[in-house]
Each structure stands twice: as structure tokens, then as C-alpha cells.
Amino acid sequence: EIVMTQSPATLSVSPGERATLSCRASQSVSNNLAWYQQKPGQAPRLLIYGASTRATGVPARFSGSRSGTEFILTISSLQSEDFAVYYCQQYNSWPPYTFGQGTKLE
Amino acid sequence: EVQLVESGGGLVRPGGSLKLSCTASGFTFSTYEMNWVRQAPGRGLEWVSHISRGASTIYHADSVKGRFTISRDDAKNSLYLQMNSLRAEDTAVYYCARAVFVYGSSPFDYWGQGNLVTVSS
To answer: Is 90 exceeded by the pLDDT of residue B49?
Structure first.
């Protein structure tokens, strides 16, 4: 099973600032990596798949990148609605699909 | 508009059974692979089960294998999760989720609103 490790657990930033979230896979997942945003009481929302492809309707301030087994989600200029928990998911080697433990943006 | 509406959750005693349903609309349900994902209170996301188009391929997480069964009824645009021998650690919000890609490994682009299952005596 591939283990996904996200860091930091909590990231404190201010609106307008840039946020950088990390997700590391325990082994190669190629580009088969997705990012989700989850707000309290809501279902997750797909933001990024294929490591860097934005899902439909996702603002351009969200971007994803990859360096080996490390994946980065960057939010270029934080808006108030971006404060949420973010999860990464690998879908390269499955079953099982595996998620990171989440990063809370506050 | 794509919608996934879940039902069937609630309180059940340890060792009991429950069946979750997820009714789809706004897309051709039969052409998509579907999944169940759960989230224990205050915890992260855990994939539970997958079913392919036509139900030809089914996978379950080790944590639920032998106890949970995923199924689908394309005529009713519905996905199901039969949960037996429930344990306290199965307490979670359960989401149905649609796969982005029509075949094979995939992220999930549409999710239901979530359905709370509480296992407690």
C-alpha cells in the first residue's frame, strides 16, 4: 500500500498570501495524484488531477506540480473561501486508493 | 447538473447491518465507475469500495473486506453499500463518489453529500 504523507498538518497564512502544501508518496505514483479541498460539513471537492491539471471550474490561483515523489499544491493569492482542509490522493497503484492525512489551511 | 444523493445511514448496534444507497442524476450512471469513501469524525478520508461499469470488477478495502458489499442497479441509477458485522470503528460519514475516468484508476469528481453511520450500543 502506498502511504501519502502531507505537510504541514496546519498552515497559518493570511488572505492575499501564497500557500504551499506538500504531499509525498512512499513510492512512485507517476503523475497519478489528485488534490481535494474540503470545507466543514461538506464533501470533498476535486481541485487537481494528473498532478497539475485543474478540474472544471477551479480558479487559476490553484496549481499543482511534481518533483519525483513529492507533489506541491500552490495557492497563489489566498481568498477567504480557500481556508479549508486539503487532501492528496494517489490513484496509481490500487486498490487501495490512498489519501494523505490532510493539511488544514487557517 | 450531476447529483449524488445518499440515504440509509443512522445508528446501529455493534454487529448489526445497514444498507446505504446513492441515487445518481444528471449523467449516464451506467457508464461510470463508482466508489464509496468514508471519513471518521475529525479524521481524514479512507477509500472503502469500488465497482466498475457493469459490476464486472469490485474491490473493497482490507478493513471492510468480508463485511461490506458494494453493488449497483443501473436501471435505478443507484449505488449501494451493504454493511454487515458493523464495528465501532466503522462510525463515519460515508460518501459515494464518481470516478473521473471511465475505466481503471481514477480520482473522483463528484461526491454525494455524505451519510453518517454511527455504530454504538
So the answer is: yes
pLDDT class for B102, splitting at 50, 70, 90? confident
pLDDT of residue B89: 97
Name chain A contacts of B95, Cβ cutoff 8 Å: 43-44
* B38 in Cβ contact with B55 (< 8 Å): no
Strands (E), chain A: 4-7, 10-11, 19-25, 33-38, 45-49, 53-54, 62-67, 70-75, 85-90, 98-99, 103-105
Q: What are A's interface residues with B at a Cβ cutoff of 8 A?
A: 32, 34, 36, 43-46, 49, 55-56, 87, 89, 91-92, 94-102
Evaluate whether B90 touches B43 at the Cβ level (below 8 Å). Answer: no
